[in-house]
Amino acid sequence: MKNIFRRLRGALGNALVWAAAWFIAAIPLTALIPHIFRTTSSFTYLGAWTFLAPTLAAIGFVSGGAFSLYLGIAGRGRRLNELKPGPVALGTGITVGFLMAVFLVLFVSLRGLPVSMGPTILVASIFGGLGGLTALGQVKIAQKALSPGEEDPDELESGQEPLLPDPQGEGV
Q1: Is the pTM of this model over 0.70?
Q2: Which candidate, 11, 27, 54, 21, places its Cα nearest to that of 136?
Q3: Helix, strand, coil % (nearest 5) of the chain?
């Protein structure tokens, strides 16, 4: 049971990191929107900050959860240095794209609107590609954090070793 909670905590943490990263990535987009639509209206800036950034953060949260799900299934039993970033990115992109398509169809259907498959596939593909790129970057950064020749630990929290020494000099 403890292992399940560790995995859920890790997936939630990863989803939050992706949400924050995608929110921050929305900042340059909000600056570009008035130039794309050739307007100086303050409403455009407000709309970008109140809609675009939170929406991308929510999609990043779901995408980060999809990455954790994919990595938990495809990367089971592998160490960090054994992961190949390309296949992880491709698998994550497909997983994110599929989940985005499902969410779009559900969202549009629940609002009583007709579902158009062309735009749904296009939007899901874009977010799948962004999810794959984010996964690629995350795996590469994590692998670079390992020093040369260092192997990643079997577990982050093994529970076998005491974290703090006993004040009397004995193990806890």
Answers
A1: yes
A2: 21
A3: 75, 0, 25
